[in-house]
Amino acid sequence: MLEIKNLHVKLEDEDKQILKGLDLTVETGKVHAIMGPNGSGKSTLSYVLSGRDGYEVTEGSATMDGFDLLEAETEERAAEGLFLAFQYPVEIPGVSNMTFLRTALNAQRKARGEEEMSATDFLKMVREKAKTLKIDGDMLKRPVNMGFSGGEKKRNEILQMAVLEPKMCILDETDSGLDVDAMKLVSDGVNALRSEGRSFLVITHYQRLLDHIVPDVVHIMANGRIIKTGGPELALEVEKNGYADLLAENA
Amino acid sequence: MAIKRAQLKQQKQDALAARQPVLSMPEGGEWITAARKDAAGRLDAMGLPIRRDEYWKYTRPDAFTSAAPEAAALADDAGAQVFEGVDVLTVVFRDGAFDADASDALALDGVEISRLADAAQADIHWAKDIYGALETAGQDPVERPLAALNTAYATDGLVIRATGAAAKPIHVVYERSSDTSDVVLHHVIKVEEGASVTLLETGAAGARANTVTEVTVADTAAFHHVRSQGRDQERQLLTHMFARLGSESTFKSFTLTPNGKMTRNECIMELTGDDAIAHVAGALMADGKDVHQDDTIFITHDAVNCESRQVFKKVLSNGATGVFQGKILVKQGAQKTDGYQISQSLLLDEDSQFLAKPELEIYADDVACSHGSTSGAIDEDALYYLRARGIPHRKAQDLMVLAFLAEAVDEIESEELREAILRRIRLWLDLEDDL
Question: CA A232 from chain center: how many Å?
Fold first, then answer.
């Protein structure tokens, strides 16, 4: 599904290398997790894959089922099936959540040459999906993320994921700012979306999210590269011993 | 200094001398002839605005003072049906001439309505106390010669007297079929105690138009005004709205300006009764280096416990210019005044400009007045977020433009009219209807 080879990325405005030869393959239908200390480049990876301004790829490649992600516009990547759940979802005054979701879905369908969904079908579909995430009608009518609590914002991200049905989902520190109940709700939402044709890349600082969203593969990232790959037990090891040992091994 | 002043005065007289020969005072009854002559006298004394006028610092008056209007090519959708579906009484003026065939019968429960041209034939009429009177009062402390010109030479308009709750809004539709029409229209509106009426206006009145509306809102009465000035690229439009508010009265005016080569909307309000409320708001979508739009507001608080509110939002792109001059004058004794003013621009590129001059002048000591003016680019984080969900760049930007303007549209009290204006903006932006 996702194939990243020797990816080198620097900041556009300063001479600072963030990713330094990252290799990563996420197979179709699998859940991979990336853990790592602050400043290891985890969020940069998610931004570069989704096409945020401010980063320059100096070497390497990233493809999704053969589709060259790095050459495409942000919206083209989304239409192709890439989804990034933001660590800090953006508040957009004046644009209702419902309008936002519908515009996004129809834009993606249009880009793929599919028919737009009728207003009636759309409303029915969104209401059903919102219900399981405990997102009420009021939250759907309100402007995107405006006045939402941290938990509501993250639930809203998962709702977008459920509506847009991407094939490659990247979750950037989705657990940050969540209490136990919210984490359960968000994780249940993600788990409900796990399927044979859909892959996940779960970026997290802590192991606890991985108790709920159990990964197939865990990678440890440090200093712009993957330094170790293993099974779910690797996350437990980090939880127990911290990153220090692993970093020392690779020093 | 004295020489300079004399020079300016001469230039203003020269400007008037260039404009006046093409104007002719319409025939009429005693009351209106007196008002017209009075206005012509005031105009003679003032001359016409010139570029060096402080009040015209950001907007060149030339378009309105030249003898003939610059030719304005006809627009495709100048008559876009903004208020389609809203139950209204329709009155059509085509290039300034009343179009009886296209208009409804001038009859409406709760309202007396007739053409100014008809009212002008009478020797005496209730409009006598208002026609030119509010305009005259509005000449102090700032001269508005083009409004006096209008009072002197307006050919037609509507006189509306609301005696109860108007059964439905009165919709004045301005059509134009000429690329050189030079239109001068004058409306007089009297909202009697406890009465209420809504005035809607759409379209461009002429290739060049100068319109004045004088409104008195009596105690506990309400006047609502919503207009869309027509997506008509080349028309040149000057409007003056003069309003006088009694106790516990309400005045709310909203203007959508979708492009247009030159627009200046002046709104001059005087709050003379306690507990009155005056709101004026505007949304501008200006695209292109030839587009210039100006909102000039002057609100005088002369009573206790009144509220005034100004909300202006301007989206500017491809070299367009937006101007906001807003003044709140709180007279001595106008205690407990609540005055609020915000003007904001969204600049979609570096070629466009927003010029703002907010002013407060306060002579009372127990008031709450605030003003703010901002100018900014589109929020890049929000843009990225929308695009990351698959919304193309242009559409994402349009969504944010709509959101920005919606804050001004929200000032419209009626949900039906608010939705009509939002539909108009969505149509312009090519966005889908809201769910």
Answer: 19
